[in-house]
Amino acid sequence: MEIIRYAELKAHPWRNGGGVTREVARHPRTRSVETALQTAPRDTGHDNAWDWRVSIAEVSKAGPFSAYAGMDRVLTVIDGDLLLLSVDGAEHPLEKYRPFRFSGDADSAGALPTGDIRDLNVITRNGAFKGYTSIIELSKKRAHPVFAGQFGILLQGQGTVSPGTAGGPPTEPPAAVAPEPERVELNRYDAVVGSDTGTPEIVGRGFLAVISIDPAEPGTV
């Protein structure tokens, strides 16, 4: 069972001074210099030598967002009241916990009419992967599984995670009742990496972002 601790993520300041980004995960994790030179956009100077990336950004200043050529984006405000997002001249008021999809090729910018915000970003390369973000309310009575290709990020409240039994190898019927699996406490914005073997199960009270990254179907953009 893998947990990515938010407190251990490195903050990368934006070049325009408007915020910082913490990368949760990317695929592939490593890259060659040749790949970086071929895929990094020359007009923005940032690294997009990956097929998908999940990150959390703190936005403290209005201004333009970086372009991600050939990418699809899903942005969700996870702290703060409102982000006024402009996409190719059209304004979209994004309220907390309402995912919004738009093209990484678009000319986009953000305004902060109610103050600083924090947002969750899922960016995927067109034709390779498709990303989805859902916000669910946690329950103490019903565990929420996190499957392979998914991340579960605790947004608010309290939560614990334990390895489940779904997807594990078949075992003989136990002679006695098996002990409860050890539960690990999650802190705010910690990410649980999904698995189909010993599928992690999250319980608690609060809100969880469930990110799914699926291989794109052939012929899709």
Which key features would you list for this structure?
single chain; 221 residues; mainly beta; seven-stranded antiparallel β-sheet; six-stranded antiparallel β-sheet; 1 helix; 17 strands; globular
Order of helices and strands: EEEHEEEEEEEEEEEEEE
User: How many helix segments?
Assistant: 1
Estimated structural class? mainly beta
Instruction: Evaluate the radius of gyration.
Output: 19 Å
Main sheet? 7 strands, antiparallel
- Residues in helices, as a percent range: under 10%
Give the overall pLDDT as a whole number. 86
Folded structure, characterized:
By secondary structure, the protein is mainly β. Helices cover 3% and strands 50% of the residues. It contains 1 helix and 17 strands. It has one helix spanning 33-39, and strands spanning 2-4, 11-13, 19-27, 52-59, 63-64, 71-79, 82-87, 90-95, 100-103, 108-111, 117-125, 129-137, 144-145, 150-163, 184-186, 191-193, 200-215. The strands form 3 sheets. Strands 1, 12, 13, 14, 15, 16 and 17 form a 7-stranded antiparallel β-sheet that branches. Strand 2 and strand 3 form a beta hairpin.
